[in-house]
Amino acid sequence: MSNREIYKEALKLLPGGVNSPVRAFKAVDCQPIVLVKGKGCRVWDADGNEYIDFLASWGPLILGHSSPVVIEAVKKAVERGLSFGLTNPYEVQLASLVVDMIPSVEVVRFVNSGTEATMSAIRLARGITRRKYVLKFEGCYHGHYDSLLVSAGSGVATFGIPGTPGIPEEIANLTIVVPFNSEEAVRSAFEKYGNDIACVIVEPVAGNMGVVPPKEGFLSFLRDITKNHGSLLIFDEVITGFRLSEGGAQELFGIDPDITCLGKILGGGMPVGAYGGRREIMSQIAPEGPVYQAGTLSGNPVAMAAGVATLQQLKDQNPYRELETNTKTLSESIATLLSDKGIAHRINYVGSMMTVFFTEKKVEDFESAKSSDTKLFAKFFKALLKEGVLIPPSQFEAWFVSTAHKKEDISQALERIEKAIRDL
Ligand code: HOZ
Q1: Is the whole-model pTM more than 0.90?
Q2: Contact partners, residue 164, CB within 8 Å, separation at least 6
Q3: Quick check: CB of 115 below 6 Å from ligand 1?
Q4: At the topology level of CATH, where does 68-317 sit?
Q5: Where are the extended beta strands (E) located within 212-345?
Q6: CB-ligand 1 contact for 20 (6 Å cutoff)
Q7: Which of 2, 163, 192, 314 is the most buried (most CB within 10 A)?
Q8: Residue ranges of the domains in the chain?
């Protein structure tokens, strides 16, 4: 069946034909593609078209598609059983890698997605502090948990969903939202809500309003102000964990949060999330402490095995310098192509995550990210797709470079991108 035929069937059976809104390609106004195979840095759709892939399953595939070590580990695990619902050895192996790699994590609890990780982290912060307010940043996205869907990025920003239907006002009112990178706004929120703020949650490098790096000193400011007010600092490293360095953004910027949320790369392409922190904090979770959180499939052996293989490979290869070099080449070359064509743009990149914005403004918060010409972005997306380059179908997302993107692939992608820009 072709892309079109499969999607037509999907439309009858799934809301909007998809299981996650951004897959419907609505913001880029084109027919969604249906992917049937991925190998290295390339994917193929049901019509047989091949694409150089910078979507990378929205971040997990730092080793590229069907990485042989991950596939091998998964096969081995599958042969022993799909799920036990009791402790299995892979959980301990993955926990030991996480504790070893992420600086602030001494104890970790595995869940099944990034959303579960942030939801549980917030509950833990509220349980420990006995406070109810959560402070988040405009345009940061932490999954679809009620308390965190206010002024969110990712699909919520993509579709311009203003409010939070389905989320009672009383719940939404417990979330304080301030602009990313604004120390002043955070300071005023603490002045107003003082000691009622349970936690501040932040993507240390925002990825869900497009890539927006923290201003110098912003993360350490958050560290200090939370500590001074007895609030907990939560780093949502679902995207940045194991991507910006072995130890994520916290290692890169030298800041230890109280709780870290992980996902994506952690599961090597399988559905895994986690939250972790110092022992004294994590000991408040049941069965050690009173804060309840559970899951039938949490710590699933197949998913854990994929995670172990992925993290071990990252430790062995230490690919971070090469990833950044390739991302820099890609960003700078695209910037030159756009300048030559006279198209206003800003390209933000940190490590192996990047976003092309079509604006003259410096992009440092959600407001400036929204100044990007999203109509032009949609044209750009379609032109790239036609030439065989896949990027996220939304302005407010990150492109990901993987270890499977070799220099030749970056060069080939740039040739395709050049053609696409010519046709814009
Ligand atoms: N966390 C992804 C956005 N950055 C999720 C993609 C989706 O919404 O499907």
Answers
A1: yes
A2: 146, 149, 150, 172
A3: no
A4: Aspartate Aminotransferase; domain 2 (3.40.640)
A5: 232-236, 259-262, 273-277
A6: yes
A7: 314
A8: 3-62+319-422, 68-317
